[in-house]
Amino acid sequence: MTLSLTVLGTASPHPEPGRPCSGHLVRGGGAEVWVDAGPGTFAELQRHTEPARLSAIWISHLHADHSADLLPALYAFAYGGLTPEAPIPVYAPADCARRLAGFFGRPDTGFLTGVFSFGTLYDGHTARHGELLLTSRAVRHDTEAYGLRAECGGRVLAYSGDSGPCAALTGLARDADLFLCEADIDEHREGEQVHLTPEDAGNTARAAGARRLLVTHVGPTLSPEEATARAAAAFGGPAATAREGRSTSL
């Protein structure tokens, strides 16, 4: 039973040509889950699957670089001929449906239910689709944010979302076969720890006992290659750079 990750986007904080913002397709046990919906990722998703076949959508937090493509997805499902057979579960922080309805100038969210079925994330939230188990953990950021642990057939994928260094993130990645982790910033500003440096990413992977590290969400002060090299040095294990369109089986 295979657990796999396909990278849809890696950019931070805005999309670039050929490089959408954060988004991933996780497959396992008969399920397909779109994990984070950064700008540009809905188009990339269509290269790899039929969106109407999605088992669920999981959103780490409501910053636009992780959630904005829920809007074109809604248009596709509601008006673009990609209508799913049943509403697609969307696991996200509590305000997600209201914000999406706001794009239509609607105070109510009921009209969304024909396309999406919203479930509110919380620390320890779990959801199972087929043989794929999703567990969410609250992590440190400047808004409500979650990391994800996806398990299938004894294999584990951990995803940081956006997070600063914290014990919850280390626990999330414990013994993961693959740790997909942000390395957004070059260094911490005084008093701010809401993102990870490459060294933070590597140190977290090492402390968690992760087997492999995949570096993503690298901000404009670093190149992905530099961030990966620095993270690998701190990790002391196999590390690679997340690239759009690449798939990894765990």
Features:
single chain; 250 residues; alpha/beta; seven-stranded mixed β-sheet; 7 helices; 14 strands; 23% helix; 28% strand; globular
What features would you describe in this structure?
The protein is of the alpha/beta class and 250 residues long. Helix content is 23%, strand content 28%. The chain contains seven helices and 14 strands. It has a seven-stranded mixed sheet with strand order 6-5-4-3-2-1-14. Strand 8 and strand 9 form a beta hairpin. Helix 6 runs parallel beside helix 7. The longest helix has 12 residues. The chain is globular, with a radius of gyration of 17 Å. The relative contact order is 0.15. The model has no long low-confidence stretch (mean pLDDT 96).
Topology of this protein?
Blueprint lengths: L2 E7 L13 E6 L2 E7 L3 H8 L7 E3 L5 H4 L2 H10 L8 E5 L3 H7 L13 E5 L5 E4 L2 E7 L7 E7 L2 E5 L7 H6 L5 E5 L15 H11 L4 E4 L7 H12 L3 E3 L5 E3 L1
